[in-house]
């Protein structure tokens, strides 16, 4: 292990943290983490395969769901190398450039996921408020442009982060707080002013995640206004039921994010284990649960998966 007090000129790597204060317990986390990553790949892979195979699912909502599944897989794959390195091979050291690369992809896929959730809120808003023009508004071309815009925004927003980190001198401890590299975590180890980094991070949070959350909220205000104007109680429930999966996905993304932010800002007195647990929940929970939520709550996907399993069972 490197000397925590060495300068950046003397070392070119960080030390990642497994379970704070309990390094001997890291091995016990290897199998649960392996199971979660396997579940993530199987769940999102199944959703993608079902949507691709079933022509009846080639609709705007399911195209956005495909993009969400790809973002979830990308986010999981961004954390997988360092997680496996620590918990499976007991190698906590990560090269400086690899850390910055991982940082870029973690934050990038996080912004992509937030953008996709906004797109899905727009999809539900159009479907409920203007169902007759739904197909003509959300055409294949428009969906493609929205997808490109979401990815482009994420790249543009996160692109300065590696350069902002790379310009900082690191002459304090090189031990990070988590099992992966985050901008705010690496930034606190610098021995120079991080005002620019902090300011840029705040601007990104406000103008991406903050505006995305407000956009989703505004979409649901419009949706509720429309739904409450429907005379039939059955029709109201049917309309709201089409939004349940998306609402669950939004909560799975934003609730852990808010929790991590609050603990980071106001929970410095809490145990490091709490910080690590919340950070892992924020990055691991949505990719695992999103495909489960959509498989359970979306009748078309659920019936298709059941049909595939029944056909496989009959062949056996």
Automatic annotation (TrEMBL):
Pfam families: 7tm_4 (PF13853). InterPro entries: GPCR_Rhodpsn, GPCR_Rhodpsn_7TM, Olfact_rcpt, OR51/52/56-like. This is Olfactory receptor. It is found in: Cell membrane; Membrane. Belongs to the G-protein coupled receptor 1 family. One of its GO terms (biological process) is cellular response to lipid. The chain crosses the membrane at residues 27-51, 63-88, 100-122, 142-165, 199-223, 244-267, 273-294. Putative odorant or sperm cell receptor. It is a multi-pass membrane protein. Residues 43-294 form the G-protein coupled receptors family 1 profile domain. The gene is LOC100513557. Its main location: membrane. The keyword Cytoplasm does not apply. One of its GO terms (molecular function) is olfactory receptor activity. The keyword Acetylation does not apply. Keywords: Cell membrane, G-protein coupled receptor, Membrane, Olfaction, Receptor, Sensory transduction, Transducer, Transmembrane, Transmembrane helix. It comes from the Eukaryota. One of its GO terms (cellular component) is plasma membrane.
């Amino acid at each position: 292990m490197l000397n925590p007090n060495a300068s950046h000129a003397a070392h070119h790597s960080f030390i990642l943290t497994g379970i704070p204060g309990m390094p001997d317990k890291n091995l016990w986390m290897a199998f649960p983490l392996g199971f979660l990553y396997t579940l993530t790949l199987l769940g999102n892979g199944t959703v993608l395969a079902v949507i691709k195979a079933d022509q009846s699912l080639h609709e705007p909502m399911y195209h956005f769901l495909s993009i969400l599944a790809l973002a979830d897989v990308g986010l999981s794959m961004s954390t997988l190398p360092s997680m496996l390195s620590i918990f499976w091979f007991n190698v906590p050291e990560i090269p400086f450039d690899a850390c910055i690369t991982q940082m870029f992809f973690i934050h990038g896929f996080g912004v992509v996921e937030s953008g996709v959730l906004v797109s899905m809120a727009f999809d539900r808003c159009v479907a409920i408020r203007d169902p007759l023009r739904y197909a003509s508004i959300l055409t294949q071309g428009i969906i493609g442009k929205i997808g490109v815009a979401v990815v482009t925004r994420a790249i543009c927003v996160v692109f300065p982060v590696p350069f902002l980190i790379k310009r900082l001198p690191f002459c304090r401890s090189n031990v990070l707080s988590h099992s992966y590299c985050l901008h705010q975590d690496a930034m606190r180890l610098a021995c120079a002013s991080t005002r620019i980094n902090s300011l840029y991070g705040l601007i990104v949070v406000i103008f991406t995640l903050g505006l995305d959350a407000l956009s989703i909220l505004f979409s649901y205000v419009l949706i509720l206004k429309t739904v409450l104007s429907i005379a039939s109680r059955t029709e109201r429930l049917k309309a709201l039921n089409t939004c349940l999966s998306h609402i669950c996905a939004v909560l799975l993304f934003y609730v852990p994010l808010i929790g991590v932010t609050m603990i980071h800002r106001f929970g410095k007195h809490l145990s490091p284990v709490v910080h690590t647990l919340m950070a892992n929940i924020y990055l691991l929970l949505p990719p695992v649960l999103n495909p489960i939520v959509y498989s359970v709550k979306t009748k078309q996907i659920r019936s298709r998966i059941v049909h595939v399993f029944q056909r496989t069972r009959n062949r056996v």
